Please model this.
Amino acid sequence: MDFLSERVSVDRKDGRTSVVISARTTRGRQTLLLTWVLAWIACGVLVILELNKRGASDPIRQYLLAFLAFWGYFAVVGIRALLWRLKGFELWRIKDGVLTIKDSLFGYGKATNYFVDNIQGIGLLQLDTTSFKYQWNQSVWVIGGERLGFDHMGKKVVFGKDLSEDEARRLIPLLKNALKTERTKG
Model:
């Protein structure tokens, strides 16, 4: 097993290539995210307590219910991001003519298979680092930040969450070589 960095490992044996990317981030960013999630939950609890004090005919109650709908959505997003940063992995495997990509949280997740023969144009994504979308995807409370992509039967597939530029550049030749080897086998 080779380690490209603290977060990225590559295993090549038995006719397969596997890449594991840990979603962990720095201790400071993990603490910041945990603090944000706990503060967000505390805000929601306070709003729920205030909602329970209000009568059914109080007009403020409707505003509090609307707020709780948005609060609930962002609470789920925040908790999911926190769990991803603490226990998440992105797994890739090239074996038997299939590239499998899986986002694994506590060992669970949906694996998506792509036939190697249908993969075209694998490479680095062209990212505009000045755009709001790029900045949002690089933030700690979002599960995203993909760096690599390819075309598969007319659809654009992106993967490589939170890879640094250096890690992504080092993985591309490895992936291209593994895909080429799989194509020659079949």
Summary: The mean pLDDT is 92. The chain has two domains: 2-23+90-185, 28-85. The first strand starts at residue 2 and ends at 3. Residues 60-87 form the longest helix (28 residues).
